[in-house]
UniProtKB/TrEMBL annotation, chains A, B:
Matches recorded under PANTHER family: UDP-ARABINOPYRANOSE MUTASE 1, UDP-ARABINOSE MUTASE
Pfam families: RGP
Compartments, as annotated in UniProt: Golgi apparatus
Protein's recorded name: UDP-arabinopyranose mutase
EC number: 5.4.99.30
Class of enzymatic activity (EC top level): isomerase
Primary localisation category: Golgi
Physiological role: Probable UDP-L-arabinose mutase involved in the biosynthesis of cell wall non-cellulosic polysaccharides.
UniProt GO cellular component terms: cytosol; Golgi apparatus; plant-type cell wall
Species: Vigna angularis var. angularis
Glycosylation sites: R152
Alphabetical UniProt keywords: Cell wall biogenesis/degradation, Glycoprotein, Golgi apparatus, Isomerase
Amino acid sequence: MADPSPKPVPLLKDELDIVIPTIRNLDFLEMWRPFFEQYHLIIVQDGDPNKIIKVPEGFDYELYNRNDINRILGPKANCISFKDSACRCFGYMVSKKKYIYTIDDDCFVAKDPSGKDINALEQHIKNLLSPATPFFFNTLYDPYREGADFVRGYPFSLREGAPTAVSHGLWLNIPDYDAPTQLVKPRERNTRYVDAVLTIPKGTLFPMCGMNLAFDRELIGPAMYFGLMGDGQPIGRYDDMWAGWCVKVICDHLGLGVKTGLPYIWHSKASNPFVNLKKEYKGIFWQEEIIPFFQSATLPKDCTSVQKCYIELSKQVKEKLGAVDPYFNKLADAMVTWIEAWDELNNNTSEQTSSKQANGAAK
Amino acid sequence: MADPSPKPVPLLKDELDIVIPTIRNLDFLEMWRPFFEQYHLIIVQDGDPNKIIKVPEGFDYELYNRNDINRILGPKANCISFKDSACRCFGYMVSKKKYIYTIDDDCFVAKDPSGKDINALEQHIKNLLSPATPFFFNTLYDPYREGADFVRGYPFSLREGAPTAVSHGLWLNIPDYDAPTQLVKPRERNTRYVDAVLTIPKGTLFPMCGMNLAFDRELIGPAMYFGLMGDGQPIGRYDDMWAGWCVKVICDHLGLGVKTGLPYIWHSKASNPFVNLKKEYKGIFWQEEIIPFFQSATLPKDCTSVQKCYIELSKQVKEKLGAVDPYFNKLADAMVTWIEAWDELNNNTSEQTSSKQANGAAK
């Protein structure tokens, strides 16, 4: 008897991990099944490690709770946030793949204007596998997309582009607003589908959201640290922002590209603006000093690896932001710990064990 | 008897001129009638001044041919290109209005995805009247648009934005490609409607196309010089690019914003790629040196007006680009002449006369 017709193998099936931070059962994966089923998932369980997180049948996953993180990292586990989705970056560290896609568990499959389900992961992979254009702006957006190209006046020497390190996707329905904007515009929904991917130019910072984000771990992984947030920290909801600022400065220094735009996911539920305000309010002050710091940060020429760049940046954070609040001294130390832990796990060929191993019914 | 119901007065009716460079009858205006009829047109006739250009009935216009330009500017007329659409910048100089919209005569009304005619001018005016965001990137595009806002992580101190000096619109159908791209992709058409307006970040250059362009003459007019192109010059089709590079460097210095994206026009006809190649080929070489020059150009603090910035830039052009080709010495001198002519016409309250005066049947 012949095999039933096999499913087509999706792009980068064995080179990409999907990282999901969560505190609840992962029913949201049902909707993503057609797109995620053949990939490996890394689930980072936040909060109470004794809680059992249910993962729908048929997904291939490993799951880490706080006990696993403490066991694997030992004293260095203090660089991984607790009771905050910043814990997701632990998943980036334990992955052995070249690419990471991370998504929040309140994000569903969006539809394009024709009504078709958007395969967000496939679009992220396209973004990552095609070059970026950080050195000059192309007015017709992504020049590598079918039906598009570089416009008149675009220097030919720049048309090879730069390697893409990050693909930042967007959100339909609930936009990623801060607490003050949520409070002022409780009913605002994002209904506009902008059919574009663009490179954020060199020298320009952007607010990187971790909800729907993909990156090349080999190119930029060690800079994707989501900082110290949540339990015991004076701040929350700046984990992805912090990573975005560091990543962009390092990508600019190393000549790597950061894209934003497509794909959209459907963000189902606004988080509580009052809770958010409490988490954010220090960040709202601090970012007024943090952003000029990152805008003017420069890295010396001998910073030729992401790790070297990141350690250098941690020194500058301590030196320049330490005066803003002692928190930044602690954060700068955690940045160093993160790199040490990253190198330990990633120069070490022995596999890490997780509390639950792949059950992979689809395999 | 009551008046027939009057047409609604369009935005900035008495504060905006539409500048059209042409060598032919302006039949294309018929299609634009609903949107342009109530505005004043400045037509700059290129080529043979004895040719009669027909303008459809009912438009309010003034028309300048080469004889007019020579008469009005005297010896300074040599800064205005001949046999090249670069001559359009003469229209910017003689306008007395705060805003300019310039459009090519092979550009027609495009349709949005719902099939509705796009009022390009209205969108440009919206772009110019709302602030720009050159200092930080907003991932949901124009934050001032209805239904949009600044996303989480956007510094509050930057949410007032910067005044918008330029609105750069795009093209459906024939994209604005250089000759090599036209030759390689003769059948490529732009069919993608990207529903976005975005600010080009500070420090980033872009290829500014003059086909569908609006600007605030008071904020940036004296920098909108389209250079020396066409008759007697070694280069063509770089008029708008030159203006764009100068404008962007000066906008960045003065804290002004440049937007690109909506509105689209329908670009009807590709120009001849062989002719274009002849015009462009020196520019294709030269831009490899011009762009790094503009990318690293800085203006001193005492350059507090557009004129001062532009004169300073002309000095740097002579100093740094003179070595690329003697053409740049000539261009640098023409930049100075342009500013002298601009100031003469614009500090002088007496109105300039044109060879044909407004016939304004719509008035």
